[in-house]
Design a protein that fits this description.
With about 450 residues, this protein is an alpha/beta fold. The protein has 2 domains: about 280 residues, 3-Layer(aba) Sandwich (Aminopeptidase); about 150 residues, Glucose Oxidase, domain 1. It has 13 helices and 14 strands. Strands 1, 2, 3, 4, 5, 6, 7, 8, 9, 10, 11, 12, 13 and 14 form a 14-stranded mixed beta sheet that branches. Strand 4, helix 4 and strand 5 form a beta-alpha-beta unit. Helix 2 runs antiparallel to helix 3 and helix 7 packs across helix 11. The protein is globular, with a radius of gyration of 22 Å.
């Protein structure tokens, strides 16, 4: 049974507020970190926070290493001549430097660590790896790892092949804290990748890839509002407003930002019940290294944060999925909420360094990522041109907003314990595979501990 008043539940199930915000964000188009669209997205969320009735709404600017995409080209020299220049077939990857390289193509399949170990003659080659996770891996292998391993093996170029048919080239950061990366990198569609793999399997294949892009300083923005008492450890409801420049970023992560604004709007009706502050934050620059979340952590006292509910990837269905990072008290809240609403829930307790909640988790702050469970492979349409509004359903947003609002309300009005852990405890709980990923990407935060 809901602890929120029936009128609030009724409002959540009938409101178009979140969908209207999402529609406006999708209509902005390019919200790449540090670019004009991200600024417009931040301004739209600030407006939504004010309309919702949140207090002390503010936009915080900070500097980031920006990246601007221009042209990309792929030419197959042998065994059959073919050139690709259209963005439906080939794109540069964020963090890539500009460059033009020609070399033999080596296909390392899914790009697992054993695939790289088994490959010969990567020095001086252009390496292609699929976005698919190897069947032998016990975790998702990030594109950045595949890129870094190719560069470490002496490759002079990198091709990231989408494994989902018709999903167009998949974009995504490759530089992270080593930005710009050391070698030019492009993404290609599954169809172009299949041709390249077929050629490379049959006979020596020579290709040329070119990237034209800018790596320059830029300004990103976090947006914040709050409800409840001024004092006490706060509950943070968060999402990221930036999205890759090739798409509308509807699922990743316009939907999450819209849900955060909607949760705030719904909680204004019961603000007098809140015994803890609730702060609503949309971060900038998530897609290029969680920079907005790290900016927030570095400029606030994290002992004043009780817990974090980060909304990212929510909207592909109305079935809630929560990665708890092993924080059992938060897991229990979501289990009780979904039981009371007779709603499905899938959970994971693995400490995973993907999503803005990681900036808090690494410091021991209880934080979860709330998303949707769906049958799509990986991101599905995410990180492609096809991450558009038509893939989503307003009814799903309403259901997810209802469940997340109920969870936040219970944490803010009851004696739910959210104890912090030490950095050492978190470090010691991280799976070996993710330790490898973090160190490969220059993101390991525990070097001196």
């Amino acid at each position: 049974m809901s602890e929120l008043p029936p009128a609030v539940i009724g409002d959540a199930r009938t409101s178009s507020f979140a969908w209207d915000v999402l529609t406006d964000l999708a209509d902005i188009g390019n919200r790449m970190a540090g670019q004009a669209g991200e600024r417009r997205g931040a301004e739209r969320i600030a407006q939504a926070f004010e309309t919702a009735g949140l207090e002390d709404v503010a936009i915080d600017e900070f500097e980031i290493p920006g990246w601007w995409r221009d042209a990309a080209r792929l030419e197959i020299e042998t065994p059959q001549s073919r050139e690709y220049t259209g963005s439906h077939a080939v794109i540069a990857l964020p963090g890539s430097p500009s460059g033009s390289v020609s070399a033999p193509l080596i296909d390392v399949g899914a790009g697992g660590y054993d695939d790289f170990e088994a490959a010969d003659n990567l020095d001086g080659a252009i390496v292609m790896a699929s976005s698919k996770t190897p069947e032998t891996a016990d975790r998702w292998i990030h594109r950045m790892e595949k890129y870094a391993n190719a560069a470490s093996a002496g490759a002079i170029g990198f091709i990231f092949r989408n494994h989902i048919d018709g999903s167009l080239p998949a974009t995504g950061e490759v530089g992270y804290n080593n930005r710009p990366g050391p070698i030019p990198a492009i993404g290609v569609s599954a169809e172009v990748g299949a041709r390249l793999a077929r050629y490379a399997a049959a006979k020596p294949t020579e290709v040329t890839l070119e990237t034209a892009c800018r790596n320059e300083s830029a300004t990103s923005r976090n947006v914040e509002g709050q409800l409840g008492p001024d004092n006490g450890a706060a509950i943070l409801i968060t999402a990221h407003i930036d999205a890759h420049d090739i798409s509308d970023g509807a699922l990743d992560n316009g939907a999450g930002s819209a849900i955060v604004a909607e949760v705030g709007r719904l909680l204004t009706a019961v603000e007098g019940d809140l015994e803890r502050p609730v702060r609503f934050v949309t971060f900038g620059a998530e897609e290029i290294g969680l920079r907005g979340a790290y900016q927030w952590v570095e400029t606030h006292e994290i002992s004043d944060v009780a817990c974090v509910i980060n909304v990212d990837g929510a909207g592909s269905s109305r079935d809630l999925r929560v990665n708890t990072n092993g924080f059992c008290s938060l897991a229990k809240v979501f289990e009780e909420v979904t039981d009371d609403f007779d709603a499905p829930l899938s959970t994971s307790d693995v400490i995973a360094p993907h999503g803005d909640q990681w900036a808090f988790v690494q410091e021991g702050v209880p934080a979860v990522m709330a998303a949707s469970a769906s049958e799509s492979s990986g991101r599905g349409w995410g990180h492609t041109h096809a991450d558009t509004l038509d893939k989503l359903d307003s009814r799903d947003l309403r259901e997810l907003a209802t469940l997340i609002t109920e969870a936040a309300y219970r944490i803010a009005t009851t004696d739910v314990s959210t104890p912090h852990r030490s950095r050492e405890e978190i470090r010691d709980r991280i799976d070996d595979g993710y330790i490898t990923e973090l160190k490969t990407g220059g993101r390991w935060p525990y070097d001196n501990e």
